[in-house]
Design a protein that fits this description.
Blueprint: H1 23-36, H2 44-50, H3 55-61, H4 69-96
């Protein structure tokens, strides 16, 4: 067995959707972005398919909102911003309870 230089090993895993079902949370974020940018609201099935892709790829290949690479990235950035904002609001609300 090979040893590691420092004898330590670390790993980072993306666990969203594994321990807790985040489909509803993701659906709200995608729906908010769709309404904000005047796109058709995604179905739950589309959100499930999008969960395994990068957001910009999901915009193009799952939701079929646009083929414009720059707009795909703009929509993905808006989605990520909404997720972060929503998460901060949830954490603040939880801290108040």
């Amino acid at each position: 067995m090979e040893s590691f230089p420092r004898g330590e090993v670390g790993a980072i895993f993306r666990l969203e959707g594994v321990l807790i079902d985040t489909t509803g949370f993701q659906h709200k974020a995608w729906s908010f972005v769709a309404a904000e940018m005047d796109f058709k609201s995604p179905s739950i099935d589309d959100v499930c398919r999008a969960a395994i892709l990068r957001p910009a790829v999901a915009v193009r290949d799952v939701f079929y909102w646009t083929d414009d690479i720059l707009l795909c990235q703009e929509v993905a950035t808006a989605h990520n911003s909404h997720l972060v904002t929503s998460q901060l609001c949830m954490e603040t609300h939880s801290a108040l309870i």
